[in-house]
Design brief:
By secondary structure, this protein is α+β, with helices and mostly antiparallel strands. It has 9 helices and 5 strands. The longest helix has 68 residues.
Length: 334
């Protein structure tokens, strides 16, 4: 378990304890049985919420919203504690009301945290939109470059060959020119099929994620001569958006292993993870660089897609060398 995940679990446990204590304090307040018990229960709830605030991970898109909720819970706990202190006093001292000042400050801080959460949410949405637009524009540039540098040039060459064959008086020369042109057209048909498959794999829509991953592994093996295994049997159909996101993450991990890691063997496998699914891409390449992976390796896009699914993505060294990309899909993404 990573340090960030351990902190998140600790914060969740502490917050859950605070909720239980706060509920008990409410019950004591309604029943009026024990002001002292209400005071200490509310104080314990506030302490639990403060502890959750202290161990809350600094990263995460929802950190401001969670912080605002915890601050509000601390304020409510403090308010109940002040009320219990007032009720438990034989002669309530008016100076006790001064304790409401820090309570008000807590609620004001919670309001600021809610405002920060709204700003952060808007910034996150803008970032995701900008990322999608940048990605789409980069794909358009790549397709235009490939169509211009490869397909258009080859078709121009086929045109020249056919024109020369049509003007050639020798039947053998005409046949040779037509044969060369047909070979060029055949190559471009395969190239266009590959480009279409990269844009939107047909197997993904027709047969599902398992078949699309097997097809991705087969094409990578045929194109690059690298041993690529795909063990995805038993993978059920998932929602279309989930299948597309998982496919793109695996595709990017496979591309990184081929282009950057110099891998000779790559393995794609899926398996159950509770009620969810775990997807692993493992290679025997050079492994992560000392400074870690950068956004140039497509890591940002992979993390964005995983976050949209509510999934956990881990990229790091494999146990036996190389790199391992692990995607843990929760049940709600299925």
């Amino acid at each position: 378990m990573t340090r960030e995940r351990a902190s998140a679990v600790a914060a969740w446990v502490s917050a859950a304890a605070g909720v239980a204590l706060l509920a008990a304090a409410f019950l004591l307040e309604l029943s009026g049985i024990s002001a002292r018990g209400e005071l200490w229960t509310a104080a314990g709830a506030g302490g639990a919420f403060l502890l959750a605030l202290a161990v809350l991970p600094a990263a995460g898109a929802r950190r401001f919203a969670v912080r605002a909720r915890l601050l509000t819970a601390v304020g409510v706990s403090a308010l109940i504690a002040v009320a219990a202190l007032w009720q438990g006093s034989v002669r309530p001292d008016p100076s006790l009301l001064l304790l409401l000042i820090p309570v008000a400050l807590l609620f004001a801080t919670a309001g600021l945290a809610l405002r920060e959460a709204a700003v952060e949410g808007r910034r996150s949405r803008l970032s995701q939109t900008r990322f999608r637009l940048d990605g789409a524009e980069a794909e358009r540039r790549r397709w235009a470059r490939e169509l211009h540098d490869d397909t258009l040039q080859e078709l121009a060459a086929a045109h020249v060959l056919l024109a020369a064959a049509a003007a050639a008086p020798d039947p053998a020369a005409r046949s040779a020119g037509i044969a060369d042109a047909r070979e060029i057209v055949g190559r471009q048909i395969q190239s266009l099929r590959r480009l279409i498959a990269q844009m939107r794999p047909l197997a993904l829509d027709a047969l599902g994620l398992a078949a699309a991953l097997e097809d991705l592994a087969r094409h990578a093996h045929d194109r690059d001569g690298v041993e690529v295994e795909a063990e995805v049997e038993g993978l059920a159909r998932l929602p279309a958006a989930t299948e597309t996101a998982v496919y793109r993450i695996v595709q990017e991990a496979l591309t990184n292993a081929l282009r950057h890691a110099g891998a000779a063997r790559i393995r794609i496998e899926t398996g159950p993870l509770g009620r969810g699914v775990r997807v692993v891409v493992r290679d025997d390449g050079a492994g992560p660089p000392p400074e870690g992976f950068t956004t140039g390796h497509g890591l940002r896009g992979m993390r964005e897609r995983a976050e949209l699914l509510g999934a956990a993505l881990h990229v790091g060294p494999a146990a036996l060398g190389g790199t391992e990309v692990t995607l843990d899909l929760p049940a709600q993404a299925m």
